[in-house]
Specification:
The protein has a single domain (about 5-275), classed as ABC transporter involved in vitamin B12 uptake, BtuC (Orthogonal Bundle). The chain has helices at about 10-40, 45-65, 70-90, 95-125, 135-155, 155-165, 165-170, 175-205, 215-225, 230-255, 260-265, 265-275. The termini are far apart. By secondary structure, the chain is mainly alpha-helical.
Length: about 290
């Protein structure tokens, strides 16, 4: 029985809100990138790998150069490079997207772990140049309305949505389907790289092996929960961020007795979202379908 007198909702409200925002940032950035990719018909389950690549590159580049902006550039470049590999396999060579995404996750996990250990022996301990969390919060706050407006009201946004719904019709109208999907995938990689940089340059000041801890898969669930809408993705990221952050806050209040249950909270929520929303949400009609002229 948990003694409820240990909780003071007045004292809990602000810390929990700030904690939810902190944990929501990487989820929101990765989810927005995947949302753009899926609206173009590209299903990429390699978010975890791209985030890991961004986290390692951000920490390492900022440590080597002593510059946080260069660390951010390194994280974006790493995310885009891994996304480029995925695009080559799935868009150009028409490989199965699920197999390619799974392979990308495993490749990034092994590569970043190996490089981290190799550099750890040389540099003793990598400490990245840090950035305040509000930098990433500002990026997310700008991207949500910008993407909502861009997808709804601009010509590139309408072309991207057409490619994700009816690629043959878009091709007939003169839209280059492969080019649109390549660009959407690289954009996805850039945002996943930023999400990884948040983990290694803001949330902490160093890289740790597998530090993404399943956040890429949670971001996939957020896209479904948000019904492929940037505002919905924001709400989903805040919800999952609150679920992830609450486990640490509750541990400080009730101890470690319920630690396994609290640790599983965000992943259980992910399963519930997938069970409740998958198949019911209006996914792009051509999602995950390779296109051949």
């Amino acid at each position: 029985m948990i003694p409820m007198e240990i909780f003071s909702w007045r004292d809990m409200a602000l810390p929990m809100m700030l904690t939810a925002l902190a944990f929501a940032m990487p989820l929101l950035l990765a989810a927005l990138g995947e949302l753009v990719g899926e609206r173009a018909g590209v299903l990429n389950i390699g978010l975890e790998g791209m985030m890991l690549g961004g986290a390692w590159a951000g920490a390492t580049a900022s440590f080597a150069a002593g510059s946080a902006p260069l660390g951010l550039l390194g994280a974006v470049a790493a995310g885009m490079a891994l996304a480029g590999v995925f695009a080559l396999l799935t868009i150009t060579l028409k490989a199965d997207a699920v197999v390619a995404g799974t392979g990308l996750n495993l490749f990034a996990l092994g590569l970043t772990g190996t490089l981290h250990r190799a550099l750890g022996e040389r540099w003793s301990e990598v400490r990245s140049a840090t950035l305040p969390e509000w930098v990433f919060a500002l990026i997310g706050a700008v991207l949500v309305p910008l993407l909502w407006w861009g997808l709804k009201s601009t010509r590139p946004g309408l072309q991207l949505r057409a490619v994700g719904e009816y690629p043959a019709a878009a091709d007939t109208a003169g839209v280059r389907v492969s080019r649109v999907r390549w660009r959407a995938t690289l954009f996805n990689g850039a945002l996943c790289g930023l999400a990884g940089a948040f983990l290694s340059m803001s949330h902490t000041d160093s890289f740790g092996e597998n530090m993404t801890a399943g956040r890429g898969f949670i971001a996939l669930a957020i896209v479904i929960f948000g019904r492929w809408n940037p505002w919905g993705a924001l709400g989903g990221a805040l919800l999952f961020g609150a679920a992830e952050g609450s486990q640490f806050f509750l541990q400080s209040k009730i101890g470690t007795t319920f630690y396994p249950l609290l640790l599983a909270l965000p992943y259980a929520l992910t399963l519930l979202v997938l069970a409740g929303f998958a198949g019911r949400s209006p996914a792009p009609a051509a999602l995950g379908q390779a296109y051949e002229r």
